[in-house]
From TrEMBL:
Pfam families: YjbQ. It comes from Methanohalobium evestigatum (strain ATCC BAA-1072 / DSM 3721 / NBRC 107634 / OCM 161 / Z-7303). This is Secondary thiamine-phosphate synthase enzyme. Belongs to the UPF0047 family.
Amino acid sequence: MSVLTRRLKYETEANIDIVNITSDVSSAIDNSGIKNGFVTVFVPGSTAAVTSMEYEPGLISDLTSVLEKIAPSDVEYQHDKKWHDGNGFSHVRASLLGQSETFPIINSELANGPWQQVVLINLDNRPRYRELILQIYGE
């Protein structure tokens, strides 16, 4: 079994910036030589998330609305009282969504559904430079 590490870099906008990274993940798999196995996509940081979704304007809007309802940006968070950076809501949202996802690789291809894309979400209240770590493992 082989394990390979790849990194992907993105500049993201403030608040909820959802970036479709599916083609970049697929390219990393293509160049890995792994035919069957898994890829884990991980974003270091506590104000970003990785998930999968149908990447289309309606769902992007829906997800943004739901996150605002679950962890509103206009309420006071204990985190903000301590650090005074105003991004307590970003940390809560990222904790709920999670920083990684693992996907199967079958016959050298990312095994995602036809309407399922891999996305990076910057949830911070300012633009951020994000570096993702991909661990590709298999045979």
